[in-house]
Write the structure tokens for this entry.
Amino acid sequence: MKKLTFRKTAMFLLSAVLTGTLYVGALYLCEKKMSLNPYLSVTLAFIASSIFYFVSNKLVVFRDAPSTSSLMVQIGQFAIVVLVNYAITISLVWAFKYFTGEVYSGSVAAGIVTTILAYLVFDTMFSGIAKQRAD
């Protein structure tokens, strides 16, 4: 069973809040100030915040966790997670934009969903203590 510590959980939530702030700031800058296409704005904000998220989780949140895989393997795993999260994000943004006419509410919904998924994946990926179940 994975041991969740207060420090790790608090640092993860802080990282998520900072990442969300970076995402919304980049989204606002791209869409409102630079007048870019809303979906391009979402994509650029997503890329910037994803890089920050990986680095902050790797270097701060899960820094003490023993790792059983190389950095390149972790980056590869992260790239897969990013692609899945991007698919979730762009789908939710599209759906919310269709109904509300704006991209921010969809971005917030996507942020909540992907943050929960990311915690589960990062904890497994960086701590190297995932166990396979024999059925």
